[in-house]
């Protein structure tokens, strides 16, 4: 430590020397001073050797190159390297003790699964170990993250730690995909989605020596697709290295999948986290600044708005915020304590300075695809043990912390160990489109870590056929032109279809606005506070309610908001009980979509509106048709009885219109509706509902799958069958839907 103190003193001198050097060059310093400077520089050089001896390590190739004390010696870089080593010693991150062993493992094996507690230093240090060790000389080291905010903040952190340590462009972050990204930096953090898009344009991953898949326990769809694709690439590219990293992943399953590769454990964490179970509020934390976390975007916003404590500042953190809004949680708020209300966006990878307490509700609101009904259902459910551990890990990043769990220890023990992989939870349309675009014909045989059930793959393909994105040619599924467009858009296929169909139907900007308001639908109308406040909000909503349904209502809100001058927007939102932030978010989504359409598909979205909420025109019809054709699997019919509500055409399930639906204020319930989502809370509700005429149903090509036998009235069954034309239905059903064919013939 004496050497370190000496070195740091010398470093300070060195800083001053920098200034002297400049003066020398300007010939303003006498020779005697020059001599002094040179003497100091020599002292500095020998001190450098001391520190290397002290660290008891052979200098890495990189270090030897840098410390070659001649020619154009890079003082600044040397300074940074020393400072980084000093920080490492100060931080004492557990992973440092394993540096040599990890590097050896990676040298000898193509794939390694690295498991280490949160805070052990995996995400920030491994990339630097690899870069320092000279892996893949001029190639990039990629580290993927499931979320943008994590990728950006890690790149910032590692950039700070190692700035100027590497010659080629140091540390970068690609948070959104662009085909113009240059892989010429030593370390690149990116979202797994970005890397997947990159793979599609360069299947050999040229210029990349090493790929680290971080937070592998989340098993996002993109991660799973990447793992499967990398598995086959590894066999062709023998010098490529893959490291799969997590605190809580199922290491054995991943190792088995990757040819039984080695599993490496990093033991220990930076700071301890004291976990307490407080299922009842009475036993809860007495500290007034500690507030339970909430589970959905809207609740986060609501909690922030309701939170009052003069000594604290309440901040929201969820996926619908812009990057700038999200980054507010990283800022200091001098003299104030930060209270952050977050969704599971904050669950992994993040280090938020100063967070000492985490309050874990134990819940998550998740969209889950239900293969039996074929719908995406939003549900509040228990998290997994792995998520609970990750949440606790957010405390204790920069100092010892504490986690309050609003459930009992036995609740924790009864949680599933790991969350279900996304591929098992979501509509597979996006995955199937991507797999087909990758040129893989046999989707059913794609080698996933966890293969989705054949039934959900079948339903995804059926939905894509319905959307006109995929067709069956000679028993091989192929993307249509529309399908290729949808892949490029990379959003949920039915929303992509909505946008593209509006464009093709020569409507104005309605398509992109619909996509944006659908993504924010549950947050646009404010409905919080006392019962009286809620009634007031409901009354204010009536002025926007459109007889065609919720999507048209949302369109008219956006249209009116957009037309206002910027300075009046907030006041208008306040007066009409509209969430101003959601409106701005819609605007951002629209911009993002417009850019994507422009650059990926060459579609220029018009800036005008074709549709007018106050006048019935042909555009109402075209819009309804577009909505129906994009959501055609979600058709429901009124049963004629309030108690029974609507019947979902595909499954015969009885559901109700959501109480917030604008259709409810128009008295008579429409006979036919198409809905965006089935919301399952106390009962099952239809949300984002649009009314349509039965005639438009029959114009759909291909016709939607329809379990006619579920329609109670025989008359209606006949009407529907004749409307579709049985032959069409038969052709569409094909051999894989013999059950439906049977139903048709029985009818
Ligand atoms: O990936 P893992 O959870 O193992 O750790 P990491 O993200 O590499 O972070 C290790 C430690 O670095 C954290 O516990 C923090 O002390 C520090 N860190 C930080 O202060 N700021 C960041 N943006 C990232 C990490």
From TrEMBL:
The keyword Hydrolase applies. Residues 272-439 form the Helicase C-terminal domain. GO terms for molecular function: ATP binding; hydrolase activity; RNA binding; RNA helicase activity. It is an enzyme of class 3 (hydrolase). Its EC number is 3.6.4.13. It comes from the Eukaryota. Residues 103-267 form the Helicase ATP-binding domain. It catalyses: ATP + H2O = ADP + phosphate + H(+). Keywords: ATP-binding, Helicase, Hydrolase, Nucleotide-binding. This is RNA helicase. It comes from Quillaja saponaria. The chain holds residues 150 to 896 of 1039 of the full protein.
